[in-house]
């Protein structure tokens, strides 16, 4: 009976190129092929019960395949976490300072426009646009019919648009 280290040495000499070729084809980075082969043989050399292995060649290829899968998953996770590579000609998704300032001004004008609405119209506008209530819910809460809710919302929108035009 040959020793495990002798068997691994023989296996390394006979299968190294095949395992490395497989790794070059299957790894996300073909440069990692030699590392996969080395890692696979290192894992086999550290087996607790090598005598239980019936087919060392099969175990070698299975181990190498699993190492490649783990490596490829890690690379995909890193790319997803980093967002991948960014083309230099793509615009930045974050608004620039000028756009942020314009948005801030627009919001301030809208707040002022809402504050300038009559009390009941402002209340209905806030319930619909900010709190997400339906016309029917607002009508029931306020004790009015749907047409009156529509009227207040239409007036609120007209008044807000006019206020925005006047204050730009």
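-> sequence recovered:
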């Amino acid at each position: 009976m040959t020793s495990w280290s002798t068997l691994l040495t023989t296996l390394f000499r006979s299968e190294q190129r095949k395992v490395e070729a497989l790794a070059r084809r299957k790894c996300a980075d073909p440069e990692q092929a030699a590392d996969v082969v080395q890692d696979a043989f290192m894992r086999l050399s550290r087996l607790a019960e090598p005598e239980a292995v019936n087919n060392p060649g099969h175990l070698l290829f299975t181990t190498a395949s699993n190492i490649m899968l783990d490596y490829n998953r890690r690379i995909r996770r890193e790319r997803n976490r980093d967002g991948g590579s960014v083309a230099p000609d793509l615009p930045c998704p974050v608004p620039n300072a000028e756009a942020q300032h314009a948005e801030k001004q627009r919001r301030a004008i809208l707040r002022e426009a809402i504050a300038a609405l009559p009390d009941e119209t402002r209340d209905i506008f806030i319930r619909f646009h900010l709190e997400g209530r339906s016309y029917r819910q607002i009508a029931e809460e306020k004790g009015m019919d749907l047409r009156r809710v529509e009227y207040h919302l239409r007036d609120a929108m007209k008044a807000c648009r006019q206020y925005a035009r006047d204050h730009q």
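The radius of gyration is 35 Å.
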